[in-house]
Amino acid sequence: MILLVSLILVPFLAGIVSFLLKGNAVRVWALLSSLCTFTLTALLACDSSVTPLLWSVPWIPGLGAQISLYADGMSAMLCLLTGIVMPVILIANWNKFTERPHAFYGLLLLAQAGLMGVFLAHDALLFYFFWELVLIPAYFLCSQWGGEKRVPVTFKFFIYTFLGSLMLLAAIIYLSLQSQGAANSFAWETIVQSGKMLPDAEQQFIFWLIFIAFAIKMPIFPFHTWQPDTYEQSPTPVTIVLSALMVKMGMYAVLRWLLPVVPAGAAFWADTVIILSLVGIIYASCLAMVQTDLKRLIAYSSIAHMGLMCAAAFARSETGVHGILVQMFNHGINITGMWLIVSMIENRWGTRDMAKLGGMATAAPRMAIALLVIAFANIALPLTNGFIGEFMLFTGIAQSAHVYHIAYMAVAGIGIILGAVYTLNMVQRVAYGNVTEQKVQGDLTANEYIGLAVIISLILFLGIYPKPLLEATSGFAVMFMP
Predict the structure, then answer these.
(1) DSSP 8-class letter at 19
(2) pLDDT (tens digit, 9 = 90+) per residue, 110-155?
């Protein structure tokens, strides 16, 4: 019980305290609190791998809502990812100037608390509370510390996610009303039972109310249009939180709160969602190929990766769902590394335009090596952590009972080929060729070296020996299949 509550309270209280600190003290405080949270997530990963943890107390008895926290292998894995990524962000950006650091780091820690709540909530109303809570610090981080177009871009991001959240809330209320006076009408078990009892036609309608909210967050075509602009305009630490962690909220919610709740609706619309996901893979990959801005290229790359996971989720295959659990963690690690490299490039060269870059292998060889390793992981090269997850995703799609499962796998495979094309082209244009003039000389600094070392160590370790991650997420796939 103490462990589950601490995972939320530690970053929440640390974030509140950060607003009261000044100068460099807030950086030290934020890093120490994030390391403390990481330690707690590591303990959770060890505990939940043996026995899932559950803790509940009454919250709003009149509504049947509880403060109910639950951690199994999937929740623990995503909490661990959050616990790893946050200190890596703080370490890698240690020497960068940030205006109003007390507010910036305070909001980052509050976002971390909200993420932990999303991954641990076992009550639908509590889940919605944390789902919305994450949006608040993300909104202020983007709008206050973003680029020149941050205000209209952040407004678009807020409207997209808020409208989706209202649809989710309507579905939650409707499902809770079907519980026939249950004492805990918002509990996960009650919501699942209420959803399964609905007629097929109602499930098909409720499915879209829930799915659109999650599809926006992932994002899935055609609900993705907020993402490239938001990633481009946000400061790099915020972009990492959005890309490595917040998009996992959507995929996690599909597995936890959509597929088990309206199984008939999910089965009915499965082909539609798979087709949308595959269209998104090809569409995003083609757009990534013509980008010159590094941030936009990686943003479209993320859409393609999430599209593959979403397609596997609705393929109704145990191997595919297990692959999603593995790939959510691995994608979070890889995309964090990509954003860190982009930030380092922009700091030294003063641009993200690939047409103005080149010669990194000569000017900053260690950075070039890091870029190459992370790029290989991004295209799922064997012996990198991205390989095992994508292999399981493709296997899951191939094992699907859908009539066109082989066609689905073939189209998804085209996305993998396109991904290799635009990723290796990016490496060629950035790392090789003529050396461009640098505004800041030097290779990796000590803090950047530490941040990238953590990322690359995980890429290689989980690529060569994925057994710990596979065991931590095994046995949960059947629970979330429609």
Answers:
(1) T
(2) 999 999 999 999 999 999 999 989 988 988 888 888 777 888 888 8
Residue of 328, 271, 273, 287 lying closest to 415 (CA atoms): 287
User: DSSP for 68-86?
Assistant: EEEE-HHHHHHHHHHHHHH
CA distance 234 to 240: 9
Type of residue found at 343: S
Record the tokens describing residue 208, joined without a space.
């879209």
User: For residues 252 and 306, is the Cβ–Cβ distance under 8 A?
Assistant: no
* Amino acid, single-letter form, for residue 164: G
SS3 46: helix
**pLDDT (tens digit, 9 = 90+) per residue, 422-457?**
999 999 888 887 766 655 567 788 888 999 999 999
Nearest to 337, CA basis, from 287, 374, 388, 365: 374
Question: Is the peptide bond prior to 219 cis by the omega test (within 30 degrees of 0)?
Answer: yes
Residue that the structure tokens 């990016």 belong to: 426
Burial bucket for residue 181 (CB in 10 Å: 0-12, 13-18, 19+): exposed
Residue type, 110: L
Q: Where are the alpha helices (DSSP H) in 290-317?
A: 294-313
CA–CA distance, 357 with 260 (Å, rounded to integer): 48
pTM: 0.92
The residue type found at 6 is: S
Can you read off the two tokens belonging to residue 366? 């260690």
Angle between helices 73-92 and 25-48 (to 10 degrees): 160
